Amino acid sequence: MAGNKKMVEAITSRDEDFAKWYTDIVKKAELADYSGVKGCMVIRPYGYAIWELMQADMDRRFKETGHENVYMPMFIPESLLQREKDHVEGFAPECAWVTIGGQEKLTERLAVRPTSETLFCEHYKKVINTYRDLPKLYNQWCSVVRWEKTTRPFLRTSEFLWQEGHTMHATAEEAKEETLRMLKVYTDFYAETMAIPAVTGQKTEKEKFAGAEATYTIEPMMHNGVALQGGTSHYFGDGFAKSFGITFAGKDNKLHYPHQTSWGTSTRMIGALIMVHSDDDGLVLPPRIAPIQVVVIPVAQHKNGVLEKANELKAALGKDFRVKLDDSDHAPGWKFAEYEMKGVPVRVVRRDTREKAFVPFEQLQDYIAELLVTIHKDMYDRALENTRQKTFTATTYEEFLDTAANRPGFIKAMWCGDSACEEKIKDETGGVKSRCIPFEEEHLADTCVCCGRPAKHMVFWGKQY
Amino acid sequence: MAGNKKMVEAITSRDEDFAKWYTDIVKKAELADYSGVKGCMVIRPYGYAIWELMQADMDRRFKETGHENVYMPMFIPESLLQREKDHVEGFAPECAWVTIGGQEKLTERLAVRPTSETLFCEHYKKVINTYRDLPKLYNQWCSVVRWEKTTRPFLRTSEFLWQEGHTMHATAEEAKEETLRMLKVYTDFYAETMAIPAVTGQKTEKEKFAGAEATYTIEPMMHNGVALQGGTSHYFGDGFAKSFGITFAGKDNKLHYPHQTSWGTSTRMIGALIMVHSDDDGLVLPPRIAPIQVVVIPVAQHKNGVLEKANELKAALGKDFRVKLDDSDHAPGWKFAEYEMKGVPVRVVRRDTREKAFVPFEQLQDYIAELLVTIHKDMYDRALENTRQKTFTATTYEEFLDTAANRPGFIKAMWCGDSACEEKIKDETGGVKSRCIPFEEEHLADTCVCCGRPAKHMVFWGKQY
């Protein structure tokens, strides 16, 4: 064992076994590891650095749209969770329960938060009194727990990290605007920072959040054609406000119920990042959230002046980019493979005779800046092209079933609005569900693809993670 | 109720009732609120913004000293917690236990982490193989739970936010250096960012962390003379490594146990901030962590051009400082009291005739920059002066008891090294404990202030939060 160099081993091919390819990348790029705690993962430094860059970028967007961060307790007393009927039905089955504290049995058991609507409502009841106290635009970064039987790093774990926005507004209109505003923030973040295009729209009644009046979603397609619910934004109306007795005195001097939203994204996004962009050589990171944007690898570093030059380069580039100089005693070949596996966007190799791109030192700064922009754009375009190629249309049920069975991806098809058809489609296709009703619907046919009754909406259908 | 303006009410006087004054400030400056979850608080936007500024500052210092952030599970299986004997004895009594997950009784109960040494060790066992894998310099930002009977916002709550560093090193020397390096980082943060001076040193055997070989501490004095343990840094030797079977192959090709440290600070620091600096008019914030550094309050804002000027001012100052313009329809008097209560360092009042400091517009930027530096220094000096005035020396036990009974503060006194004397002093003074053995001891006498046997160390003694 001693003295052995860590070797970069080949990973499973993406086309051969997508699931194994995914976990290989998680492990070999050192993003996460399994823990001894059932269903919970360890997020390793490289994975967590990606999460920190995502957080910083999103947090800036939240603050620019007027939101403030807060922190609520991680426990929810059972009676509090039960306050809103649909909500408790949705979440209680997957809760972890604390029943003992300080060596004593608790008189009331506490759920480890699966989401925090109830805690926010309890607080809002105390701090909202008049129209002057509205809107309340709060967000929280924390971890939540939803008990899972089968888990996969980032995609489905019993504990995960996320942000949950919870806002209160004087009118339904304002709350609806907020719901769509935050979906737009997510969509922009996906496109501008993660280089990921996505379908967005409204969830059907069947797929909406427990307790919400309307749920909006962003649904990026993974390389293999499977969807990942990438973030959701919910409009609650005044349902929770009524359950919790939250009122405010309006300008009209009368009591009103405020209108509510919530919206969330999580470490699942790292799963999306992997499954949209990466390939058989390992992780591919979009430059804006790459912990290392440029790696400097000196070749023949024992030679006089080589390390000096490399350090000079690192200092110069470090002003504008996140740069790492690897002057460890691993062989250059090992280093090339290592940073390829870790998805570092740009490799600068200093060697007098064997450069890949010949760029004079003084132009390198500008060259790399442009290169990173190009890389981002190319990654986005490739993902968009993949989504286009794997998006199909079905106007008959036979066509729908054939596509579902043979061509992984999204299916655009008309729908009558009845959840019985969703149920039927799911059962007969081995799990194809409605992803969303897009904001801009096409008129593909007059009738529901499943039952033949008059169509109400066009729906994106697909399997999901 | 409707239309009522929120009024800034007077708070309890600090000299009259320090405890009530403290909770008044927490509540009136809107830092935190009680929640319906026993022992847990809600950290409100203004309080959380202070925490974010603290986090950003410390995180920068951690990264500059080579540390990386990670995330470990929030649950610890009971068998894992039991792996290190002293550690489990210290923490098990105050754990919250999850016994049900996903509607099923768990075969092994899970502690909600009170601290994460055991989780880090389990991971380190997997990722440390050779000397090349060392040092591991990891840190984690998260929340932890320690069941408490009596709680006070920020100072003692069943759940609190913190950072916990956990590092592994090839040699004992390196680990010891790390322990002291991180105590220094804490000391610098307290002085440079929080404007808080402190006594630092080593904890006695009796007061050290469960499972540690040595614990170092930073002990700032609150305005009332009571100490607050402001942060601790532990050297573990290879005790945990042996319990967990963590070994590495050295350059000598033999297996060795690595040496370990951990270090932590928490949202308690917000409690220290309040109790060191604030006064009868409310919170006083050191400029570097004030969420609002400058508030612009327009007087007669309905008059032509006043708001325009105020916005101009905000835009100009906003380039260098965190600025808020309050153009709400509250009266200026209300605004003055509000931002005084919230501890905003600088108030800029735009009115043609009644300025407090006459500073031409174009010099305001520089004037405020200097003012903020001065404010920080003055705050630090006042706190240092308070610490000096309330630090006493005792060479006889009578003197010690008299000081403990009548003059709140620190007592410097010699000690024999026997924890029986610490026990006796604690019992006979109603709670005075050893704070630490300072790095630079004075020779005050030859004998222990308590038992008269030969003295081994000078100790700082005092009551604590």
Protein model, in words:
2 copies of one chain form a homodimer. In chain A, strand 15, helix 9 (306-318) and strand 16 (323-325) form a beta-alpha-beta unit. In chain A, the strands form 5 sheets. In chain A, strands 3-7-8-14-11-10-9-20-21-19-18 form an 11-stranded mixed sheet, with helices on both faces. In chain A, strands 4-6-5 form a 3-stranded antiparallel sheet. In chain A, strands 16-15-17 form a 3-stranded parallel sheet, sandwiched between helices. Chain A is an alpha+beta fold and 465 residues long. Helix content of chain A is 34%, strand content 24%. Chain A is built from 13 helices and 21 strands. The interface between A and B is large, with 66 and 66 residues.
CA(first)-CA(last) distance of chain A: 38 Å
**Whole-number radius of gyration of chain A?**
25 Å
User: What helical percentage do the residues of chain A reach?
Assistant: 25-40%
Work out the number of β strands of chain A. Answer: 21
Biggest interface goes to: A-B, 66 and 66 residues
Assembly classification = homodimer
How would you sum up the major sheet of chain A? 11 strands, mixed
What order do the strands of the largest sheet of chain A run in, or round the barrel if closed? 3-7-8-14-11-10-9-20-21-19-18
- Ranges of chain A where pLDDT stays below 50 over 5 or more residues in a row are 1-7
Please tell me what the overall shape of chain A is: globular
The percentage of residues in β strands of chain A lies in 15-25%
> What average pLDDT do the residues of chain A reach?
94
Count of runs of 4 or more consecutive helical residues of chain A: 13
Helix and strand content put the structural class of chain A at alpha+beta
